[in-house]
Design brief:
The chain is α+β, with helices and mostly antiparallel strands and 436 residues long. Helix content is 38%, strand content 25%. Strand 1, helix 1 (14-23) and strand 2 (29-34) form a beta-alpha-beta unit. The longest helix is centred in the C-terminal third of the chain and has 33 residues, at 345-377.
């Protein structure tokens, strides 16, 4: 009698939780999730789920999409890109028109609320908090033993590292001295805040903060940027500002404080109503906490034997194209589709190899694209600067390969690759037995 395939997921954020959710329906998979913190919770504010991510959720299953809805996600009517400085300041650069064509644009959801819904019905015995991974041991039978800082251990056939941008599992796969094992700073920083809808609307303006005509706005200035959108079923508004510092690129700084004076100087040449919004929403305290935006250099692989990485552990990206969460959902779709077809640990190894082959090129392309988009959004694009017409020609098309993506085809190609590799492995073993 064949035993179950034992799968351990380290990291209880969005990536790990969405994969757990997708794997639990399969009784032959014994899945457990381990979180280093004392409780399962998400850091950060809101994330966007563009239509590629929404499609991936639908393919995982209708109940997965319902989790997003129950979490208070607000579907955006559209996304508008606006010029805040330079010739033509105040004009719209471009906007998505996809809803008019019957296509979904993006939904904005609070990370913590989405995580709560994904984990709501997970059996408690599958969830293990306070488990900081300290060491990974390979066993003679091909299994893996996870050793945690509290002295406990867990044996599994497959380990999936969803342990974020400072991933322990990534270093295990690549080697701690590999240049791609650790993340790097891109030099940009951002300040994020959530404000009650009424307060934000009074500061930013009724015309652009409207739950009945919910749109995300991105404003592009000279080394300065602003974003706002509506979430939590219209109760909250996310308000973000960002800037770029050349001397912070590739530094080891994760955070900094930004004084109210510095914020005011960055936005003093912006249109008056936007300067007023920044002043009222962010400058009522002497300083604000900002975080630098980091990313992963491209890894040569996401897999080593029975161990793999996904989500931010595999391809941490900057938020400029709103794709970090979406890539995690796509990863979960592909990994769950392949692993549910693995009836033995050996077949699960094939699933991981195929996952690496199909996911690594797409995700690394998105990370690279997002970094370049960040420069454009700060008015520093080499070919665009603050030129309205050049921005109109070059900005919005950068999303085409991300959102207009065939997840169903992507999934089916991965399944075909796995089936081909399993047939090849079976035939090879059969021929070997005949020779004996």
């Amino acid at each position: 009698m064949s035993r179950s395939v034992r799968i351990a997921i380290t990291g209880g954020g969005l990536a790990g939780a969405s994969l757990l959710y997708a794997l639990l329906p399969y009784p032959h998979l014994d899945v457990h999730i381990f979180e280093s913190a004392a409780a399962f919770k998400e850091a950060g504010m809101a994330i966007g789920m563009a239509r590629n991510a929404l499609d991936a959720l639908d393919l995982i299953g209708p109940s997965a999409a319902q989790c997003l809805k129950r979490a208070g996600a607000v579907p955006m009517v559209g996304v508008r890109f606006m010029l805040a400085q330079g010739k033509g300041s105040g004009n719209m650069i471009d906007e998505t028109k996809d809803e008019a064509a019957g296509k979904r644009v993006t939904s904005i959801v609070h990370r913590a609320a989405f995580l709560r819904e994904l984990l709501a019905n997970v059996p408690r015995e599958r969830m293990h908090a306070g488990k900081k991974l300290d060491k990974i041991d390979h066993n003679n039978d091909g299994s893996v033993t996870l050793r945690f800082a509290d002295g406990t251990a867990h044996e599994c056939d497959i380990l999936i590292g969803a342990d974020g941008i400072r991933s322990t599992v990534r270093k295990f796969i690549l080697g701690a001295n590999d240049p791609a094992a650790s993340p790097r700073s891109t030099g940009s920083w951002c300040i994020m805040t959530l404000k009650p809808f009424g307060e934000a609307q009074a500061s930013i303006g009724k015309g652009v903060v409207d739950v009945e005509d919910a749109r995300e706005y991105s404003w592009i200035g000279d080394r300065s940027y602003m974003l706002h959108n509506v979430l939590d079923q219209g109760r909250l508004v996310q308000f973000v500002i960002a800037s770029y510092e050349k001397d912070a690129e590739d530094s080891d700084r994760w955070t900094r404080t930004v004084s109210a004076d510095e914020i005011q100087k960055l936005y003093q040449a912006w249109p008056p109503h936007l300067y007023k919004a920044v002043d009222q929403l962010l400058c009522n305290a002497p300083e604000q906490a900002a975080m630098y935006l980091w990313e992963h250099p491209p890894a040569r692989t996401y897999v080593s034997g029975p161990v793999c990485i996904m989500g931010d552990a595999a391809h941490a990206t900057t938020p400029w194209q709103g794709s970090g969460g979406g890539m995690s959902i796509e990863d979960s779709l592909i990994l769950s589709t392949l692993l549910c077809r693995a009836k033995t640990p050996a077949e699960a190894l094939t699933a991981l190899k195929v996952y690496d082959q199909v996911r690594r090129p797409r995700t690394q392309r998105i990370v690279e694209s997002s970094r370049g988009t960040g420069l454009i959004m700060n008015g520093l694009g080499e070919d665009t600067k603050l030129d309205l017409e050049k921005l109109r020609a070059n900005l919005l098309p950068r999303w085409d390969f991300i959102v207009d993506f065939g997840n169903e085809k992507h999934r089916d190609e991965a399944v075909a690759m796995m089936e081909r590799d399993l047939r090849s492995w079976t035939n090879s073993n059969s021929n070997s037995n005949l020779v004996k």
